Amino acid sequence: MTSQVSHNAMSSSTADSASGAWLAYSAGLPVMVGVLAVMFGWHIAVGAKSLPLSTVLNALVQYDPTLFDHMIIRDLRLPRAIIAVLVGAALSVAGALMQGVTRNPLAEPGILGLMAGASFAVVMAIGVFQTVPTVWLPWVAAFGAMVTAVVVWLIAQWAPGGATPLTLTLAGAAITAFLGALISVAHLLNQETFEQLRVWLAGSLSGRRVDVLSVAAPWLCLALGLAMVLSRKVTVLAMGDDVARGLGVRTGWLKVQVLLCVVVLTACSVALAGPLGFVGLVIPHVVRLFIGSDYRWIVPYSALVGAAYLLGVDIIARLALRPQEIATGIMTAMVGAPLFIHLVRQRAS
Amino acid sequence: MSESISSRSIHSSSRLQGESLTVGYDAAPILNDVDFQVPDGQVTILVGPNGSGKSTLLKALARILTPTEGQVLLDGQDIHRSKTREVAKKLGLLPQGPVAPEGLTVRELVAQGRFPHQSLLRQWSSEDERAVNDAMTVAKVIDFADRPVDGLSGGQRQRCWIAMVLAQQTDLVLLDEPTTFLDLKVQVDLMELLVQLAHQMGRTLVVVLHELNLAAAYADTLVMLRDGAIMQWGAPSDVFTSANLKAVFDLDAHVIRDPHSKRLICVPTSAPEPAQHVEVGVRIA
């Protein structure tokens, strides 16, 4: 009898702790949204000219076109902050999805070659046609990312043992290096055109590409929504193809959907901000440390943390050598690399 | 032989059937024109030497592999043409050597078994909660429900996976070598659990096993495969014989009955001295 009671008490306590974790994760989401909002305001406030947060709020809520500060905020700083939020979220979610589906902790758009492919396509299009209508930029990038993804997968598939995490990573690294070399060659052959692309290729939020933003934002948000819908299946797929199929997941179709999602997210990010490294790699790992392996939580948290991270990095990029600006792509790696090494060491011990 | 198989299948009903299954490429099919009916409510154990096609047969039955010829019928429906999620409500699968993602807790792992019962509109329910808790209780993993799976011992981990398949609440469960790499005691515990599922809870189990004595001890129906064909099929007392072990496994063994458990055991014997060995000895002398 006593053992029966104690067993019941035990099972109810485990049930409580499970729902407790669920409550904690749900409660964490609005907290992260709050953090993101503060970072957003702070990001707009800092710059060559510091503005008080009250002015920032006023400009967003009660826009007055006669005030110079409001104009700076609306036309220059707000688009940049929005781009940072969208790109940070997109790259982190793309990285999280790729890590789940390939069961490769190193997977992300940068390492598996998608980002190089998107950049290469954009560079080539501009090199050949001189000017590309901005409306087409995300599609050119998407085309490049898609072709590269397929090529990397085929190379890995041809390797002995098939598309394992190792062969995928190697193929991605090789393709990234190869496309990087081609971009350098194109640069040497046509210095004038590529001088304009130099900052973009380093990864930058300073372009203020409002025209690209209006094209890319809807697709990017759609892909983020699709990522949320797919997240539950990605958790199942992360346990292995056969387990997932046994549970009734159409694994082939799911992989196609995830690939499309990742390509759109990567392409929109590249079109908006150039190739930004490390965000897609580091953020999902940070998120996983705190909330475990369920992609229903990993995906939304990656989006929020990634957005906040890129806002923070961009704040540093603009403040570090004020009034000069460091390209954001340089700062994501400069902040991201030590953070990543720290995480790996912490996991090892 | 096919006559004897069909005559046996009359005795028991079968919801899951393979009809003239051929799996693999034309030149060298791994499974060649196999007919197979899974007896309902029983523990059916597939044994055979490496490369005999036992895992392939299990994967074909579980719709993981698509046969080049023939079909698998679940309740009369071609399983490869049915909606996979509907199939997953009737048929569960535990593949060989599954690996849990790092950090996933036991409860989270077992909860994945509810996947086929959920949809975008129908999320987590109290029924799911109950199924998960029941499965963890039956598989005896509830005491460490909130620990990460990758930190558990091999036997505990395998019980977690079995709990996941149980949470799926399917009448049929297919398991591919669930006892591999486990201590003998843990293997026995797992087999006891599986038999209990079949005999007390009415589940139908098909298990691929490597361990012959374990298979003979716990099978209701023992199926012996070799070279992509079913060689023998029946109750262990009928098919677990010294002659069949020689024919299927090329194993020289005595089959004896344990006086206490009445279970059959095979004891390998050394093969007769090969002739050339003696010759070499003579030459040296």
What this model shows, in words?
The complex is a heterodimer of chains A (349) and B (285). Chain A contains 13 helices and no strands. Chain A has helices spanning 2-45, 53-61, 68-102, 114-129, 137-158, 165-189, 191-201, 210-237, 241-246, 251-273, 279-291, 295-319, 328-348. Chain A has one domain (44-348): ABC transporter involved in vitamin B12 uptake, BtuC (Orthogonal Bundle). With 285 residues, chain B is of the alpha/beta class. Chain B has a domain at 2-90 and 170-245: 3-Layer(aba) Sandwich (Rossmann fold). Chain B has eleven helices and twelve strands. Chain B has helices at residues 2-9, 54-61, 84-87, 106-111, 126-138, 154-167, 184-201, 212-218, 236-239, 242-249, 275-284, and strands at residues 16-23, 31-38, 43-47, 69-74, 77-78, 91-94, 172-176, 204-208, 221-226, 229-234, 253-257, 264-268. Chain B has a six-stranded mixed β-sheet with strand order 6-7-8-3-9-10, with helices on both faces. In chain B, strands 2-1-4-5 form a four-stranded antiparallel β-sheet. Chain B has a two-stranded antiparallel ribbon with strand order 11-12. The longest helix of chain B has 18 residues, at 184-201. Chain B is globular, with a radius of gyration of 21 Å. Chains A and B meet through helix 1, helix 8 and helix 9 of A and helix 3, strand 6, helix 4 and helix 5 of B.
Outline:
With 349 residues, chain A is mostly helical.
Give a topology summary.
The complex is a heterodimer of chains A (349) and B (285).
Chain A: H1 2-45, H2 53-61, H3 68-102, H4 114-129, H5 137-158, H6 165-189, H7 191-201, H8 210-237, H9 241-246, H10 251-273, H11 279-291, H12 295-319, H13 328-348
Helix pairs in contact in A: 1-2, 1-3, 1-12, 2-3, 3-8, 3-10, 3-11, 3-12, 4-5, 4-6, 4-7, 4-10, 5-6, 5-10, 6-7, 8-10, 8-12, 11-12, 11-13, 12-13
Chain B: H1 2-9, E1 16-23, E2 31-38, E3 43-47, H2 54-61, E4 69-74, E5 77-78, H3 84-87, E6 91-94, H4 106-111, H5 126-138, H6 154-167, E7 172-176, H7 184-201, E8 204-208, H8 212-218, E9 221-226, E10 229-234, H9 236-239, H10 242-249, E11 253-257, E12 264-268, H11 275-284
Parallel strand pairs in B: 3-8, 3-9, 6-7, 7-8
Antiparallel strand pairs in B: 1-2, 1-4, 4-5, 9-10, 11-12
